Structure formats: structure tokens, C-alpha cells
């Protein structure tokens, strides 16, 4: 119970409980408290939180200012979020670099796989892929890779069937070419065609990874490369290089008279330099430095003295006798010094 005396004395004081002798005075604050500015509330930002981010979990450890800053940041980049009224085509992708401030071994949360392998997650992923296919964001249409090689260069063209006016028409995606290197000029015709296939798959693997496609070439050797059983080292390296595409590709032979587009790319190729996106650098052979050369001219007298010195040494003489025998001679072996027997 608090008692406050406001009438009997000029000084204002209050007491606590029944103790009337202990008095507590009121202190006047010299600093005036005034409300000068109220932080504005962004109604659009609050609407974003309530409509599109209503299922998001914001950490409870954030202060009010931190939560407001986060809401403002999300509102500034609101185009990255899609609602149920927007199609999947309107989702904008963002790339960012993440630098970890921890060292190995990483905690379990960081080491989690990118996609959970549960049946429910796989089913949801398949449904999502089918939606993307229906919308045309990703296409599941036939792809063809045309290749050709000549003594001037290598050429390749990547084509895909496209639906134009409700009709499937094959159209080009990209063309690549380069001049051959001096070391490749020694290859035969079949080796050159196989080299062109390996080069085209390497330079356009991001188009072909994970899809089924046809390789069209005017060389029958390329057609049998995957199933070739006896081949030289160069053809074997080409065979190994394309093994990862074995289950996804079919190699088809096409006569050279109708193989025109790729024939022009290989006969008039782009220079093989860094300005060419399909550039392949020349592999420099390792250079072993020569530290010095020593030339000595010895006459026959020197070699005679060497032979004579061998006969004077007991161990060398016994070793020479052992080398001339057809079978093992234990008596000669025991005649050697102990260190030589080992």
C-alpha cells in the first residue's frame, strides 16, 4: 500500500505500507520526453508479408528494426516471388555466391543433399517437370548433332525439332567450327571424323547432357565407333571419351552429297584461337632442360686396366665365375665375403 501526502506540506512525498516515518520524495525529470518522429509503415511491404510470405518463417531472434529491414528488402525484390495467380514462367531466377565461414567437416545441415530422395519428393519433382514441359519452359523435342571433318578444320551443327505453326520443323540451335592443329594434320580420315565427334560433344555438352539425340556423320567409322573392338590408341581414347553418352545417343550415317551444311563449316572453319568459343589450345610437349653435355675419348689401355683390376679383386673374380656357370655353385657363393652374399 502506498500513501501519498499532497496537502499538509509544501514538499510532496509518499510512504510505503504502514511506515509513516520513512518518506520518499518525488523527483522531477529535467529532460522532457517528446514524440518528434514516428517510423513510417510501408503498407505495400506489410501486404507482401501477409499475402505472399504468410507461410514463411521469420526468426524470432530478430529485433523490430531488423524485421522491418528484412521486409523492406523482400519488398524491393518482390518480383522473385510468385503467387497462385501467376504462371511458373514469371518466376525470376537469381544467382548468388555463398562463402562459408566454417571449415571441414561441415555440420549436418550444410551436408544435406540438394533434393531429398523420399518418394513424395520425387513425385512432386516429376509433377513440376511435367508442368514446365506443358508450359514450354523446357522442351522435350528431338535433337540432332551433325558433324564433319576435313583437312582444313572441324565443323558441327546442333539442330532441334521446333513446333512452328503447329508443324514440327527442324531448326538450328548453334554452329561451331575450328581449324585443325598441326598435330592433328597427321591423322587419317577416320581418326579426323572421330576427333570431330569428341570435340563437338565436349563443346556442346550443356545442350546434350541428359537428353536423347542423334549424331549424323558421313563416315561409317563413326557409326561403328561405340562397338569397335579392335582399335588403335587414338580410336580407343575417342571411344572412351563418348562412353558417357552411350545410352543416350544413336549414330546415323549420311551420305556426303547431302551432308552440306557441316561440310561448309569444316572447309571454311574459324581460326583456332582464343576468340573462337570452340577453341582448343595446342598441347605443348614438356621441355626437359639439358644441364650439360660431357664427351670423353678413352683409348683401349684404359679398358684393359679395368679388366685387370677385376681379376685382382677376389669377389669380382668369383662373381665372374658364377656368371659363366649354368647352375648354382654353393661353394663359390660361400667363398664370397659375407657382405657380398647378400
Automatic annotation (TrEMBL):
Keyword Nucleotidyltransferase attached: yes
Molecular function (Gene Ontology), one example: hydrolase activity
Chain ranges of the Reverse transcriptase RNase H-like domain: 141-245
Alphabetically ordered keywords of this record: Endonuclease, Hydrolase, Nuclease, Nucleotidyltransferase, RNA-directed DNA polymerase, Transferase
InterPro entries: DNA/RNA_pol_sf (IPR043502), Retrovirus_Pol_polyprotein (IPR050951), RT_RNaseH (IPR041373)
Annotated protein name in UniProt: Reverse transcriptase RNase H-like domain-containing protein
Lineage: Eukaryota, Fungi, Dikarya, Basidiomycota, Pucciniomycotina
